[in-house]
Amino acid sequence: FFPCFCLITPPCFDSATWHKRGDTSKDCEWVSTHSPRCGVRGEDGTMAHYSCPAACGTSCDDSSSWHKTGDSSKDCAWVSTFPQKRCFVFGEGKVLASDACPTACASS
Fold this sequence. Notes:
It is built from six helices and two strands, in the order E-E-H-H-H-H-H-H. With about 110 residues, it is α+β, with helices and mostly antiparallel strands. The longest helix is centred in the N-terminal third of the chain and has 5 residues. The termini are far apart.
């Protein structure tokens, strides 16, 4: 018997506050009933696939510590709102957003 020093990914949980832009009744549960809805943008600017990972079956591999160089408010959630450009932004230590935020950048 050998001990396992495995990396275990924490379970993904859907946001309790995410909803489709302009319609508070359309939340992660609504997204879960039809997979194309994972591409819907929420009121907060994030895509459903990012804020509703359990509903969409997406991973939860984004860094909780990455942020844009010089601005700690711009994290992986910020990247997810405009991944086409923001996945190419560098963070502290010259870590590219696409490397630190693979879930946020999955659709870019």
